[in-house]
Design brief:
single chain; 549 residues; mainly alpha; Serine Threonine Protein Phosphatase 5, Tetratricopeptide repeat; 30 helices; globular; TPR_rpt; repeat; DNA-binding protein; DNA-binding; Ycf3
């Protein structure tokens, strides 16, 4: 016992250092033991601790690729080259391998060529050349013409455009894709995505023209033909659509990307048996797939009468993405149907079942969700192009509430496109509510009652409180508003984008009056500050999350 006490007295406590290097080393050990889940967890922890450390990102990308998550791996690699270290050209070689594993050989070729152009006699030169040999000779694919190295950012730009499309920033994607096809007219993936961008913003004529140009460059391009089928369906061109669908039904693609595109297109067009056939082919191939793929396959199975198979695929989607709860809701939907409940039609979307994505029926509290919902974004832009005048009025109001750069772009573009004076005025009011600069040719009378946008852009909220409250003798109200605004700046987590200082001042004055039993209506304050009542309400909602004690 004495001996043990002496040991305890001599023991020195050493801090257990857990830095990024520790988690990288730990991840490598888990990887060597094929414990991929713990390896990924360790590498993600390393990235969280040192986000600027590209080595941590590379380890994470490598582990993702090791587990068959090639698309996720490429997302990490794109972030390295775009955000952390543009000089790390090895990233292009890693992406080339990922694209090859995804059987997207066009992108694999582009990344391998870019690596060779950027790296010269780089470490992976021999492997990149072997990959190109495989693409050109083993697969019998002709080499494409590549531009000089200084213009090779077309690939990262295309990836950025693709992400913008997925996230509902259609106008942003449109601008990027236009630049790409102008710089590299032979880059067909950009042409295909450009037609989709035009479709999502409601410019169907441009979408059709873009598809025609794509098919001129490559007769039989499957992506272009699928896009054409969707457009023909939208315009009720039944004769042409039936002929095209008969042709598409005979196509059995080899590459997974083309199979996925055809399966999704057939599902959207209501050809669920054909969609099921292609999804089943993909999933039987044994390659890794994302949860949404199993979800779409389950929808095709369900709508083609194969409900047991649908349940199995939704169970698989649940295993892969348990946190979203989407698969759970569809599984419950099938059980409800078995108990006699009538089920509404299911669209091919990775959303909860029977979810109402109509912007017209969404409550005010849902406006912030519009920013992240591509379906509603597309609905808004389509209605702004093709809706009735009263619908366009509602869309302009909704876009002014969203208030981000994409919304401003859409409203400004609409102002120049419409020849309706009343709608032009409403567009100007929407821009004013967003705090955006007025078009140079805008008549000043159109926004009478609104503050000069230039003045508002320059004035801070603090300056506005001094100007509109303290300078007018409202000392107590002004000091209270300054304190609350400081608290908002320090603690608020909201992503609401309202750039007009007077909107926040109006909201502060409203909250102050409510607390101090001197309440003024939001309509009164909106008129006082020359803004819309909806904008005041949006800012009030944000401020109401603060503790005013």
């Amino acid at each position: 016992m004495k001996h043990n006490k002496s040991i305890l007295k001599k023991t020195t406590v050493v801090d257990f250092k857990q830095d990024a290097a520790f988690f990288v080393d730990r991840g490598m050990r888990f990887l060597n033991r094929y414990d991929y889940e713990k390896a990924l967890r360790s590498f993600r922890r390393a990235v969280e601790m040192e986000p600027a450390n590209v080595e941590c990102h590379c380890h994470l990308a490598s582990a993702l690729a090791e587990t068959g998550q090639f698309e996720a791996s490429n997302e990490v690699l794109y972030e390295i080259i775009e955000k952390w270290d543009p000089s790390m050209v090895e990233v292009y070689f890693y992406m080339a391998n990922n694209y090859a594993n995804l059987e997207d050989y066009q992108m694999a070729e582009e990344m391998a060529v870019r690596y060779l152009q950027e790296a010269g006699n780089g470490h992976y030169r021999e492997e990149a050349e072997e990959l190109l040999d495989y693409i050109y000779f083993e697969l019998d694919l002709p080499p494409r013409h590549f531009q000089p190295s200084e213009n090779e950012d077309v690939y990262s730009k295309h990836e950025r455009a693709r992400r913008s499309l997925e996230e509902g920033r259609f106008l942003e994607a449109l601008d990027i894709l236009k630049e790409i096809v102008e710089a590299d007219p032979d880059f067909l993936p950009a042409w295909n995505n450009l037609s989709l961008a035009y479709y999502y913003v409601g410019d169907f004529q441009k979408a059709m023209e873009t598809i025609d140009k794509t098919l001129e460059k490559e007769h039989g391009n499957l992506h272009a033909l699928c896009n054409l089928a969707v457009l023909l369906s939208h315009h009720n061109h039944t004769v042409e659509l039936l002929a095209l669908m008969d042709m598409l039904k005979k196509v059995v693609p080899f590459h997974p990307e083309n199979t996925y595109k055809l399966a999704t297109t057939m599902g959207v067009l209501g050809q669920h048996d054909e969609a099921y056939f292609h999804y089943q082919r993909m999933l039987r191939a044994g390659r890794p797939h994302e949860a949404c793929t199993y979800h779409y396959a389950a929808i095709s199975a369900y709508l083609s009468g194969r409900k047991d198979q649908a349940l199995r695929w939704w169970q698989k989607a649940k295993q892969m993405d348990p946190e979203s709860g989407i698969a759970d809701q569809y599984i419950q939907m099938v059980k409800n149907e078995q108990e006699g409940e009538t089920i509404k039609p299911i669209p091919y979307q990775y959303n909860p079942p029977q979810r109402d994505v109509s912007w017209e029926k969404a409550p005010f509290t849902g406006v912030e969700d519009f920013k992240n919902d591509p379906m509603i974004r597309a609905s808004l832009l389509w209605a702004l192009q093709h809706g009735r005048d009263e619908v366009k009025f509602a869309v302009l109001q909704t876009l002014s509430l969203i208030g981000d750069d994409e919304a401003e772009h859409a409203v400004r573009q609409f102002y120049y496109q419409t020849d309706n004076p009343q709608l032009q005025k409403l567009a100007l009011l929407a821009l004013a509510d967003m705090g955006a600069a007025m078009p140079e040719d805008a008549p000043k009378s159109a926004v009478k009652g609104h503050q000069s946008s230039a003045v508002q852009a320059e004035m801070s909220v603090e300056e506005g409180i001094h100007r509109y409250l303290l300078a007018e003798g409202q000392q107590e109200a002004g000091e209270w508003c300054l304190r609350v605004w400081e608290k908002h700046q320090k603690y608020a987590q909201s992503q609401v984008q309202v750039r007009k200082a007077v909107a926040w001042i109006a909201a502060l004055e409203y909250v102050y009056g409510t607390i101090g039993n001197n309440k003024k209506s939001q309509a009164y304050l909106a008129e006082k500050y020359g803004i819309s009542t909806a904008t005041v309400a949006k800012c009030v909602k944000v401020l109401s999350t603060l503790d005013f004690k």
